[in-house]
Structures are given as structure tokens and as C-alpha cells.
Amino acid sequence: MAVARKDAPPYLRIVAELRRRIAEGELAPGERVPSTRRIAQEWNVCLLYTSGTVVAAPAGRRAEPDHRPRAAAGSGQELTRERIVRAAMEIADAEGLAALTMRGVAARLGTAAMSPYRYVNGRDDLVLLMADVAHGELVYPAEAPAHWRARLEAGARALWALHRAHPWLAQIGPLTRPLLLPNLLAYADWMLSALDGHGLPPTAMQDLNILLYTHVQGVAVHLEREAQAASSTGLTGQEWLDTQESAFAALLASGDYPTFTKVAEGFGADGYDLHLNKLFELGLTSMLDGLTPLVEGGGGARG
Predict the structure, then answer these.
(1) In 3D, which of 115, 118, 110, 114 has the Cα closest to residue 53?
(2) Taking the model in full, what pTM does it have?
(3) How confident is the model at residue 28 (pLDDT cuts 50, 70, 90)?
(4) Packed helices 202-233 and 182-195: angle between N→C axes, nearest 10 degrees
(5) Which of 55, 112, 151, 152 could serve as a FRET partner for 81 with CA atoms 20 to 30 Å apart?
(6) Alpha-carbon gap, residue 295 to 72, rounded angstroms
């Protein structure tokens, strides 16, 4: 079997390697090839989205059913809305929301391209179903904390953990067009109950609930963006920063940004590491500190 030369274009080397894996049985007929995101990471190339690809059986031979736990062609499982939603979530979790297509879901489930439309009207409806199922995974304390602050902290951290598990959640619609999803409303109810009984007017309660929600979403949006950037450039965050070192040094040396330069030089040799978890916690603590006089002062601000 032909092997691509080391100096061959990346796409030829990728094709040759996938062919080798198929020929040697590492990828069996009916099995999905590596995701586009995994290919981009493994071969250090830019990401191209596909709708999902499976290995075909050799000519004259039928593909054997894949009975492994994941959804696959020939598994014999009945197609349901629940299976469609779960397959879609797996694609979005692995490759990002931009990679999600109805055809790709069908391919993952090993069914005809139009079959999912018998259960879901289209991609937009599917994304809403995915979001509702995802919010149903929120894990709250078995006993709700009695103190308002502890309850808000628990809710915000649960939502942050959910976005860590499903980064695409931060991409699914503007704040000005709220999603009327049962499980998302259950989250809002949890947060609002922490503010209830403190003399706050309804408008203030909802404003604070939305403010905390946007803090979580505002930090979480960078989880998916970083994954997309890593896939499209083939560089980790640190590797990309290394390519910017000269330009950054020139900006500092210009003298046009004295305070920023002072802060940057204060980082020392190790530089500054941006950790989203740490940023989330800092923002949450700061916001709750700022809310304490308002909540415990009987709703003094009634804008």
C-alpha cells in the first residue's frame, strides 16, 4: 500500500494514514473516522467541518453491525427523539456547535439522512432540545443552602460546570431573546428563590439573576472559542502566544502604554497565565460582594 512521503502536503499524509488504519483493521467497516477536531489536533492542521464520515465496507462485502455502546450503524436501536438529541450533543461536545448538521446526526446514528426530520423539525429546533436536555443535567446541592449568598454561589457554580461540560451552550442565542426551556426556567427559579424575601422588587430580582447568568456565559463563551482557535490554527494557546512575543515586546517598548507596561513587567519571568476557572471565581466573588449591601439592606436600589 502506498505511503505518503514526509514532505507530502498534510492532506495526503492524513489520507494515507487513514487508509493504513482501515487496511490494518484499526478502523473497521461502519466505524466513524476520527472527528475533524481530532484530526486537526493530531496532524496540526486547520479544521474543516464535515457532517460525519464512516468507514465503508470493501466492495462485495457488507459492513458488520457495530454493537458497541455508542450509537452506530446497524446497532438495531429504534430511532427516537432522545437518541437524536444525545447524538447531536455528542457531536457538539466533540467538534463544536458549528459542526452540527442534521446529516451529521443521521450519519452518527447510522440512519438515512432525512430520518431525524421525522422527530425534529430542523437544526434550530434540535439545538433548543439539546439545550433543554443539557440544563436538565444541572447538579444542585441535595439540600438548598439557607443563606441567599450560598444558594446563588451553588447555582452559579453548577451552571459553570455545565458550560465546562458543554461549551457550545454559550453560543446558542442572544440574551435579549431568552430561551423558554423548562430546565433553564428551573435554574432561574433556583436563583430567584435565593433573592426572594429580601425586599427586592421583581425587576431587581430578575436583573440580578440575569447578571449572574451572563457572568457565567460571558466567561464560558471562550471555552468554545479557544477550541475553535486551536483547531483552525493548529496551535495551543501558549504556542499562539509565543508567536506574538515580538509584537508584544514592541508595544511595551513604545512607551505609549505606561500603566499596562508596568503591570506586565510586574508579572516577572513566568508571565501572566489566564485561567478561566480562576476568572469565573474572581468575578463571582466580586459580584456577590457588591450585591451584599443591596440584598441585605432590604432592596435599597429600586431602579
Answers:
(1) 110
(2) 0.73
(3) low
(4) 130
(5) 55
(6) 52
